[in-house]
Known about the structure:
alpha/beta, D-Maltodextrin-Binding Protein, domain 2, 2 domains, five-stranded mixed sheet
Amino acid sequence: MSDATITRRAALGAGATTLLLRSGGATLPLAISGASRAQGLRKERWMAPSRITLLQGYVFVGQEKGFFKDEGLDIEIQQSPGTASSLTQVAAGTSTFGQAAAVTTCPPIADENASLITIGQLAYKGFFELASLPGKPLKHPRDWQGKTIGIMSVGGTTDRLLDAMSIMTGEDPTKVKKVVTGLGPSGVAFLQRGDVDGFWVFYETRVALEMQGVQLNYLSGDSFAQLPGDSVIASTAVVQNPANEKMLVSFLRASARASAYALDPKNELETIQLLGKYNAVEGREVEKGKRILQLVRGYLAPPAGVKAIVNDEKQWVAGIELMEKIGMIKNKGLPRDRYFTNRFANQAVG
């Protein structure tokens, strides 16, 4: 069975009635889901690259505030153990949408013909940082040659970003041992025991550690490998099906609206409370949530001339060239629109 067939059948959801649509000489599947269509809503699934966090306000706020409903959509929100899971589920067609950064989507697209494409950008600045002890700081990729580094998931963003940083500075990424330490602040225990020499954190982990009085040295991944940040991904089969155009535009339009709502300082308490429906622990930690949102606003702020949710084409082209240069992408010279498209985002915010 082809990727396209798997993707459409799974993405349309269980209980859907599949029709055949003739378009341009090709036979395309068009589904009408009984339960969702009866309510006038099209049900689609989105998978997080982790547990649900405040970075994903564009989805959980959009669902809870009815922004997706206004667009005729009902989004099923699922968490996952890591970015690699989000990629796999979208490529296989079991989730219509996912979230991942260019460093994890571009190599499999180029070298494995993965059924993935980025349709909208969320983060325009990198938010992953490598934490180390102040007395043994990791300030350059040469500092972790022969050392052990904690990553969030095998094959995920931090795994690939660590390799990119090493290669960019002429170091050998194979001389770095990697172990999974996850997303949470528990990674500091590995560090203090000496099990790892550094571990990756993101904004939420750093804020939690600082609130606990833990002082560490932090090195931004952008320091040595600046690449497009977390973005909205879909499968190429879904994107290439004309029957999905309205749905894709609608998803991005609602996402942009929800993101703007979640990032508005006057809505921060409500946003944190809404997060609690998907992540009860973080939803209760209001002060921590406020600090996180302050950081997230900076990561998600697009550069001048670029609208929120639209892919920064200049950043993407430079990022792809960088990944080709350092050998992260081996099959070089693919058209840029194989990696990302603004076709739907431009319609959504235009």
